Amino acid sequence: MEPLRTSDPAKLAGYRLLGRLGAGGMGVVFLARSAGGSLVALKVIQAEYAEDADFRERFRREADTARRMTSPWVASLVDADPEAAEPWLATAFVPGPSLGEAVAAHGPLPVRSLRLLGARLGQALGDLHAVGLVHRDVKPGNVLLALDGPRLIDFGVARDQEDTALTSTGVVVGTPGFLSPEQAGGGGELGPACDIFSLGCVLAYAATGRPPFGTGTLDALLYRTVHDAPDLEGLAEELAEVVGGCLEKDPRLRPTAQALSEALAAAAPGPGTASAPDGSPADPREALRAERPPARPGASPAESAGPEEQVPGDEAWLPEPLIRLIAERSAAGLALPGIDDTEVDASADGAPAAGTTVASSQDRTVGRRRFLLLAGGAAAVAAGGGAAAWAALSGDGDDKSSASGAAATASGPVHTIGLHADLSGDQKSIGRAQERGLRLAVDEFNSRAGKPFTLAVKTVDDGGDPAKAPVVAKQLVADRSVLAVVGPTTDATALASLATYDAASLPLIAVSPGATALLVMGSRSFLHARVTDTVLPIYLDAFLRGAAKSRTIGIVDDRAADAYAWEISSTLAGVLRDARQPAVPKVVSALRTDFGPTLEALLDGGADSVVFAGYHDRAALLARELRNCDFPGARTAAQGVLDARFLSAAGDAAEGWVIVAPVMDASVAPEARAFAAAYRKRFGAEPERYAVEAYDVARMAAQSLGTLTAGKATRANLTSALRSATYKGITKNFAFDKRTGALVADGGGVYLWKVDGGRFRYQGAAPYQVST
């Protein structure tokens, strides 16, 4: 949660606002407390959008849809006023992560969790379809996880099955990667079956950690959804048939929501389920009902699942780390102030307004007393007190900076650029290089005469541990002087911490992570300052068919590298297929250490070159096999093999390997001559990989900060400035997609490296067009 801003009201429609859960271009979702003391998610639309009759009608329909839903597995509507000057609706607050956040942070769900997840979401969709509605945007971000089961949320695009008033032919409704072929085609009939297909995608994602139709550009996702088979590799055999049925291209072949729920419930009867004489469930629907907490007479759906009524063992439907996370968030909710606590209005000079008193009673919780104590402090609750109060309340630090994020100094405000890096773990050399590149850029900026502000650097170390990444991210979030963050170092830590930064609208500029999944999580503040892993195969193809003159390319997909390997191998296979270039793709189990059979299969298929889609350690195994058989062709890989440990493990078998990577060697690149000289002078060493990339984005951030007028240097404004910026760096020209934060590639920023004499030697910019 992000603290309230000074422009936010203290109350709205009788609800006390406690913080911001999210914000978009058209409105804000607040965490609020009702007059009865319940926490709600309060969605408020900005007045200027409410003036649009069509937009107000959409919001009116969303509220109406939410009212019609009575399923216990839907976040229930508490109240709404679509006719207000700023239309709003309040739904029961679920203090758990979204499914997308949970999988990104803790990995795929176990089979039992998947069964219950699918069965209960099937029930939610069944209830929705029974009243003639279609959700049309079932995705991981619209599924919240609670202790007693999932909750389906967001009915902003839900419609009556026969309603076409607010849609048009050719418009894609839904989220690419999780929509049905009918939706991807833009004009097909959007009936209940499209929700079932989307639920199948969600279950496949929850089971494997990756979308079943991959990642990449919008056009690629839409094409695969319509034409390609889903990737269900890694899905438990007992679930493969059920999920596969949901993903049938023909909507007539998909199960109904009820049939799906029954099939999943039958696969995992819950405690107390009645059984037939042969031990099978007497009625699969009863199996699921046995796990659903019974409603109290007169209780709302949101209130009908009290812990005292849960079936024994039902609370363990999720893995322990997720249960712990939900418990922590629930406890934080209890510590928030109540509706009856006296509020503090701050005057312009930071002192409490005249007549303001702070209520204090002996029976208040410690957490609430801490909140009120902070609220009573004149400086703490001035324009930026909300941030300080939230940081202290949540234990995230002792930040004392002002709300603007800038501390006043004699030479102007101080703005901080954070570095989130692995400084002590497996990738510490990259983290250290990024820190040095960042500090060099900041030192150069601060040495300028007449600078409008001063820059500072704050670093946090996650040790390369995805479990630690969100924790250290909170340290940067809590420091209100931090207006942008460079990092984290790895895909795993970036995926684990992205939600933390996004919730605070703190711009996160990734220099070394390449996972395309970072772009499909719907972040409002993420900027991908390098091409994604799915772009690198274009350069591999250009090198192999150009300089290497390969005719048949062997592709080794190493399952030990999971999503990274899949992105490289599947994209390259698609590029070659489109070019009608022969390829021999082979998948290697993560448990296999003998690459001999794989190499034999490549040779039998006529491969005269090899691309290894995986990491450095297992690339060394293949390298030795290739050397043992005197393989004469090109041996290539992407940046996952650009690691000194590949050289030491492969020995002389590494000679001749060519690596395509989005990183420059600033020690020899002519474009980086001035940077390298300054780096040597500052640190007494040659620039390491990813130092100049961090230097580039730090200078870009400083440039964007310079475009913000006095008082406008906020995290949200900087995100907008960065996404709108163009910047000519040493490594590439920077420009971003304003909606997703993706780097707008212009054929730059990717380089060739070759192992020569036991070292990786820089070869310059990689070609991206096939030689003719």
UniProtKB/TrEMBL annotation:
<dbReference type="InterPro" id="IPR028082">
    <property type="entry name" value="Peripla_BP_I"/>
</dbReference>
<keyword id="KW-0812">Transmembrane</keyword>
<feature type="compositionally biased region" description="Low complexity">
    <location>
        <begin position="266"/>
        <end position="282"/>
    </location>
</feature>
<keyword id="KW-0808">Transferase</keyword>
<keyword id="KW-0472">Membrane</keyword>
<keyword id="KW-0547">Nucleotide-binding</keyword>
<dbReference type="InterPro" id="IPR000719">
    <property type="entry name" value="Prot_kinase_dom"/>
</dbReference>
<feature type="domain" description="Protein kinase">
    <location>
        <begin position="15"/>
        <end position="264"/>
    </location>
</feature>
<dbReference type="Pfam" id="PF00069">
    <property type="entry name" value="Pkinase"/>
</dbReference>
<dbReference type="InterPro" id="IPR028081">
    <property type="entry name" value="Leu-bd"/>
</dbReference>
<feature type="compositionally biased region" description="Low complexity">
    <location>
        <begin position="297"/>
        <end position="309"/>
    </location>
</feature>
<keyword id="KW-1133">Transmembrane helix</keyword>
<keyword id="KW-0418">Kinase</keyword>
<dbReference type="InterPro" id="IPR011009">
    <property type="entry name" value="Kinase-like_dom_sf"/>
</dbReference>
<dbReference type="GO" id="GO:0004674">
    <property type="term" value="F:protein serine/threonine kinase activity"/>
</dbReference>
<comment type="similarity">
    <text>Belongs to the leucine-binding protein family.</text>
</comment>
<feature type="binding site">
    <location>
        <position position="43"/>
    </location>
    <ligand>
        <name>ATP</name>
    </ligand>
</feature>
<feature type="transmembrane region" description="Helical">
    <location>
        <begin position="371"/>
        <end position="393"/>
    </location>
</feature>
<dbReference type="InterPro" id="IPR017441">
    <property type="entry name" value="Protein_kinase_ATP_BS"/>
</dbReference>
<keyword id="KW-0732">Signal</keyword>
<protein>
    <submittedName>
        <fullName>ABC transporter substrate-binding protein</fullName>
    </submittedName>
</protein>
<feature type="compositionally biased region" description="Basic and acidic residues">
    <location>
        <begin position="283"/>
        <end position="294"/>
    </location>
</feature>
<keyword id="KW-0067">ATP-binding</keyword>
<feature type="region of interest" description="Disordered">
    <location>
        <begin position="266"/>
        <end position="314"/>
    </location>
</feature>
<dbReference type="Pfam" id="PF13458">
    <property type="entry name" value="Peripla_BP_6"/>
</dbReference>
<dbReference type="GO" id="GO:0005524">
    <property type="term" value="F:ATP binding"/>
</dbReference>
<dbReference type="InterPro" id="IPR008271">
    <property type="entry name" value="Ser/Thr_kinase_AS"/>
</dbReference>
